[in-house]
Write a structure and sequence with these properties.
By secondary structure, the chain is an alpha/beta fold. It has a single domain (about 1-185), classed as 3-Layer(aba) Sandwich (Glutaredoxin). Helix content is about 40%, strand content about 25%. It has helices at about 1-25, 65-80, 80-85, 105-110, 120-130, 175-185; strands spanning about 35-40, 50-60, 90-95, 115-120, 135-140, 145-150, 150-160, 160-170.
Length: about 190
Amino acid sequence: MKRFFSLVIILFVLLVSIFIMISPTFFGNTLTRFEVKKEVKLPLVLDDSRDVKLLFFGYSGCINVCTPRLRDLSTLYETFDESIKKRVGIEFIDISTPDDEMLPQAFATAFHPDFKGIYLNSKVLREYTKAFEVYFSQSLIDKTEFYHTSNLYILKKVNGKKEIRFIYNTYPYNFEQIRRDIMELINE
């Protein structure tokens, strides 16, 4: 009986945690974006010639959350002309630390050849998820699935520093606002 109650409590905590992580996706459109100016001192992010990055955390093979968001980001990306594409990048960071380190890149480029998939080992992944306040947990039912926040981050290089400028937390994302934000950042 004691074991049963422990299991019920663990299940309850897990369900509440999952609800908290995914509720912005399904409920309310009042807070769709936050404007921030937070410096990020991590490698990989904005370590190329691009001025602006859209960053999404998920896992390779995720069909319910990552696939629709990356597909929509591909559609948005295709609306930019080549001069903007040279300045804006889209990166996908895999939270699952897959055995195949090339899997995140293959998953990301399945949506667009310009997208970048990033593999991080567990230690480095912890640094990234902490800096970006990304929460995730492995499914108790299927160990190949993860529950995770689905925020979209827009970052910009500012005087040699990397800053998080906007966080979108409600899906479907407001792509007109994202487009305006990107253009504003490019023209700063």
